[in-house]
Amino acid sequence: MNRIEGKVMGIINAHFPQKDIHILELAPGEGGLTRALIESGYTNVEALDINPERFEVKEVKCHRGNLSEPLPFESGTFDVIIAVEGIEHLENQYMFASELNRVLKDDAYAIVTTPNIINFASRIRFIMTGFYALAARPSSEFEKNWVIEHIYPLTFWQLRHILHTNGLFIREISTDHIRKSSLVGLLLYPFTYLLTWKSLAKEGDPRQREKNKDILRQMYSPALYLGRTQIIFAQKQKSAYIKAT
């Protein structure tokens, strides 16, 4: 189990003391986190991976599936869905979030992690090179290997929009690791905060302007300003978002 999975395991243990909840882990790889769930006493765990042959936790069923396609489960099936470092590999991230919503029970939860490309060190890398941290070079134009390529790295506000417009509302934000290279950004924190505030304050819709206050607070939390990974704990709720037709 890696550092990100360890953080996710801590969130699960903290929020879900009941061990019979129905958990789905997406793209588990060999199953390090799945193994930790079983060892912690969770008894109703399933997994889904594009290469289930790699999955090593024999007592857990690993379905074959592609996260770029509809999930092969009935609506309202799961209490918790875990997607560690997967969404940045997908072509249609809004469809993916819609599928998470569909297969979750009402008021259930999703934990989604992805590289944090808005930490201060990544912002500097982008200014200097045109590429973000953990997405430091172009994807191949000769071989489609999106299992390993970050074809769509996400800023926090983009990830929030994907989740919130699909009825998955952020309850907590954390990270796996504070990047030492981002700490220099503390010297510029007031300046960057002010510039971001001025940009968000230009929003014409008063409803979104109010939401932007929350986005500003979240973007300048230690987890996002300094952290390596975005770890988002979200809850399925009814959404007032209106999609244009």
Poorly predicted runs are none
Cα-atom Rg, whole angstroms?
Answer: 18 Å
How many structural domains are formed by the residues?
Answer: 1
- Helix content, binned percent: 25-40%
CATH superfamily grouping: Vaccinia Virus protein VP39
Tally of DSSP helical segments: 8
What is the annotated CATH architecture? 3-Layer(aba) Sandwich
How is the largest sheet built, in terms of strand order? 3-2-1-4-5-7-6
Written as H for each helix and E for each strand, in order along the chain, the element string is HEHEEEHEHHEHHHE
CATH class: Alpha Beta
Strand content: 15-25%
Distance between the termini: 44 Å
Total beta strand runs = 7
CATH fold annotation: Rossmann fold
Structural class: alpha/beta
How does the SSE layout of this entry go?
Layout: H1 3-15, E1 22-26, H2 32-39, E2 44-49, E3 61-64, E4 78-84, H3 93-103, E5 104-115, H4 120-129, H5 156-164, E6 168-174, H6 189-200, H7 206-219, H8 222-226, E7 229-236
Parallel strand pairs: 1-2, 1-4, 2-3, 4-5
Antiparallel strand pairs: 5-7, 6-7
Helix pairs in contact: 1-2, 6-7
